[in-house]
Amino acid sequence: MKFLVDAQLPRHFIGWLAEAGHDALHTLDLPLGNRTPDSEVIAYAAREGRVVVSKDDDFIQSFLLTGEPQLLLISTGNIANTELEKLLRTNLPGIEAAFAAHRFVEITRDALVIHE
User: Fold this and answer.
1) What's the chain's average pLDDT?
2) What is d(CA 84, CA 49) in angstroms, rounded to the nearest whole number?
3) What are the residue ranges spanned by the domains of the chain?
4) Mean pLDDT value across residues 13-25
């Protein structure tokens, strides 16, 4: 899978996603870095076939209106980066399976939620 990790998430996430066999970029890798407007993040993700990984609710609105981007929404509230990384690593097989048939997946502290 191909991921684009949004600004509010740590850049080192792309390293362990790559270790798991995925192609991952962070918004810092885009020409405007973390100042890239959401509309450009969405357009880039759509062109490249990337799943946006974000905590940002603005991407939900875009998805509901346009069906873009493919979205992995992190809905854990405040969480340590190490705890979030462990949660994502543990759930990565389920995330991969969910995106085989769906475009919007949400992860909470307790569940993986597939949105239709």
Assistant:
1) 95
2) 24
3) 2-115
4) 94
Q: Give the C-alpha separation, 75 to 57, whole Å.
A: 9
User: For residue 116, what pLDDT band results from cuts at 50, 70 and 90?
Assistant: confident
Percent of the chain at pLDDT above 70?
100
Helix (H) or strand (E) run with residue 91 in it:
helix 81-99
Beta strand spans in the chain (E): 2-5, 23-26, 51-54, 70-74, 104-107, 112-115
Pairing type for strands 2-5 and 51-54 reads parallel
Tally of CB atoms within 10 A around 76: 17
Task: Check whether the bond before 93 is cis (ω within 30° of 0).
Answer: no
d(CA 70, CA 67): 8
Q: How many whole angstroms separate alpha carbon 63 and alpha carbon 23?
A: 22
- Which single residue is written with the structure tokens 């085989």? 100
